[in-house]
Design a protein that fits this description.
mainly alpha
Length: 87
Amino acid sequence: MFRRKREWISASEVAEYAYCPVAWYQSRMGMRPSGHVRREMMEGREMHRAAGASLSRSHLLKRISGILRIAGGLMMLLSVIGWFVHE
């Protein structure tokens, strides 16, 4: 049976992997980008940035919708209480 040498992965490598597994793998394998690949990497970084911004907006909208649902539920509850009080 083959035993593999234990390799440690740093926290920054975990973050790099979470950001882009392909870039992490290429870096780990010692692959260095050539001229046309650099351009593609810059385009990829821009795509990652745009996706991150979209995700941030999505989280913000989800929070706002939760707050509005709670506010709507409270308004309904208050209107039902008001209806019973004035009956």
